[in-house]
Amino acid sequence: MKLYFIRHGKTKWNLESRYQGAGGDSDLLSQSYKEMDQLGSYLKDVDFAHAYSSPIKRARVTAERVISQLKHRPNLTLWSRLEEFNLGKMEGQKFDDVKIKYPQSFDNFRNHPEQYNAKEIGGESFQDVIARMRPAIDYIVANNNANDNVIIFSHGAALKALINSLLGTPIKDIKKRGGLANTSTTILETNDDGKSFNLVKWNDTEYLNKHLNSTDLI
Fold first, then answer.
1. Which stretches of the chain are assigned E, i.e. beta strand?
2. 92: domain CATH number?
3. Residue 9: which domain range?
């Protein structure tokens, strides 16, 4: 089974370097719709057994737009387990402002995820997010066939935590693979019913035909 993980299209807050978690949802940029179509064209011949998405608008719209480009359009299930981090007091704030207001939380969230204590900002830790999302992957693997392709639309920080956990990467090391870009594709494969996963592709954006900058990645 192959799991295709898609990060949503780029939003206004992504462009402005603002925190955008489960409690915030700025508008998708006009350019993002073109990039969704590019992704849909790239994946158009893949036969997906099912699609799953975070219900947050930026992810849901990305899912619907990409699915509309596919030759074999799978049914779409919206699932709150696939939502982005709850970022509490950081929600909607610029990165530079959070660095001043909550310096320890800012540094740990970016550089020492195993030390990130979300209580200060009233949100979720990396452990919390992984514990929330892993049951969704267990369900998806159990409820699709061994040779199926499944597509999952979610969010950058949450996907980075989840995918690294599926690959057995300790939380302290999840930065080592790099970030995930908007409208990127990361593919994992399992040959043992979800007991283990292999990385097929990480942060694939070749179909976008553009140079990525810091506001594209998380």
1. 2-7, 48-53, 76-78, 149-154, 185-189, 198-204
2. 3.40.50.1240
3. 2-216
